[in-house]
Structures are given as structure tokens and as C-alpha cells.
Amino acid sequence: MSKNVRRGFVVKDEIEFGNQWVDTLKQASEELYYLVNRNYPIKSASTFIGNHYLLSERQRLALVRMTSASWQLQKRKEKELSSKLLPSCLHIDGFNTIITLEVALSRSLLIKGMDGTLRDLAGLRGTYGIITQTEQAIKLILQTLRNLHVKEAKIYLDQPVSNSGRLKVLIMELAKSYPTQITVSVLSEVDRVLEQLPGVVSSDAIILDKCMSWFNLNQHIIEQYIPKAWIFTF
């Protein structure tokens, strides 16, 4: 039975990412971008800047998740696929994609990265439970794949994450009503698999840097179907 909760919702986000913090966070992001472009490690650089501006842990996490060096942004842009030129098969980072959509549907905070991807701050760390928004998130993925005329999609779920088996069953059950051929694999090292493939769907920065090509599916879905999603842009 699914839980009726708001994925990724934290009450303090309304303050820490509200109007009074916009200018400070923008300044902090510019300074972090400056440092990572000069080869400062992003972790230590974000700690230094976070201490300077007295940022909360979630504000610091948001800075790290949205910031990339210029060479990374250029490399990702060169590999990004257009919705009009998609391969016949997409490889989807399952938890990464579904959780982001659950957060959007919950109207919880999403961060727009410099590379255009949308990232959440849910921080599940190996624990996952199916919630009321899960089925809708999966249906939006399947509906969009159909509309984009994607013939096949392979969805990868992390085996160590709780309820990965239950999520696989739900995806396969819902996929019966859609034309795209769907397979779901539960693997111990999803990241390493996706890093070697073309047509990847993920917002994981490491995967985007290493994969052969990628498509910003969540951005496409949220723009089309979740216009009231809360997206913070630095």
C-alpha cells in the first residue's frame, strides 16, 4: 500500500530558498563556480563558501548539486540528445528519474543545475517506499516515451535500495498499457552500467560525464505535465 506523503518536503525550504535568500545563494553559486573552474575540489570549496555565507546544510547541498565546472558543462552539452533525435532505446536511471518526478508532483523543492537537469534534495540514502505519487510518476514516464515514439526503454533499479523489487513489479504492471517495450533490471551497480551506454536518462553528474549520450527526460516531462513544480534556479 502506498504512503500519502510529500516526497522531499522540508518546511524550512520555504524560508531557506525563499526571496530573502535568492541574492545570497546566487552570489554563493557564482563564487563556487569560480573556484571549481580553477580546480578547487567542490566539497572543500562549498564548505568554505557555505561557512562564509552561513548557509544551511540543504543550501550547501543545493549549491553542490547545481554547480559544475565549465568543461563539464561543455562536455555534457555536446552529448545531450534532442527530443527529435532520440535513439530507438533509452536507458533510464530508475530511482533517480522516478524520485525527481515524485518530488515535482509533491511540489517539494527541485534544483535546476547549470547543465539544465533537475535535481532533488530528498536524500533517501538506500531507503525508498512507494508513495501516492509513484504511480503517477511512472505513468508520466511511459506516456512521454510513447509520445516521443521511443520503441524501447530499459529501466535500471539499484538492488541495495529498499523496495526495488516492489517498484519493478509496479512498473511492469503499468507498462502493459503502453506501446513502448519496457524491461526493468535490478542491479547492484546501476551507475557503472549507465556510464558505458548511449541514450541515458539520469541527472547524476558522474553518469552524465561518462556516458556516451543522454536525454533530459525529467525536464521534458515537468515542462509538459507538471507546470506548478517548485524549481529553484540560482
Q: Please write the string of helix (H) and strand (E) elements.
A: HHHHHEHEEHEHEHEHHE
According to DSSP, the number of beta strands is 7
Spans where pLDDT lies below 50 across 5 or more residues: none
Query: How are the strands of the biggest sheet laid out side by side?
Result: 5-4-1-6
Q: Give the integer mean of the pLDDT values.
A: 96
Count of runs of 4 or more consecutive helical residues = 11
- What is the overall silhouette? globular
Give the distance, in angstroms, between the N- and C-terminal Cα atoms: 37 Å
Supply Rg: 18 Å
Question: Helix share of residues?
Answer: 40-55%
β-strand amount: 5-15%
Output the structural class. alpha/beta
Major sheet size, sense and barrel closure: 4 strands, parallel
What does this structure look like?
This protein is an alpha/beta fold. Helices cover 48% and strands 14% of the residues. It is built from 11 helices and 7 strands. It has helices spanning 13-16, 19-36, 42-53, 57-66, 70-79, 94-105, 134-147, 164-175, 190-194, 205-210, 217-225, and strands spanning 89-93, 109-112, 118-120, 152-158, 181-187, 200-201, 230-233. The chain has a 4-stranded parallel beta sheet with strand order 5-4-1-6. A 3-stranded mixed beta sheet has the order 3-2-7, with helices on both faces. A hairpin with a 5-residue loop joins strand 2 (109-112) and strand 3. The longest helix is centred in the N-terminal third of the chain and has 18 residues, at 19-36. The chain is globular. The mean pLDDT is 96.
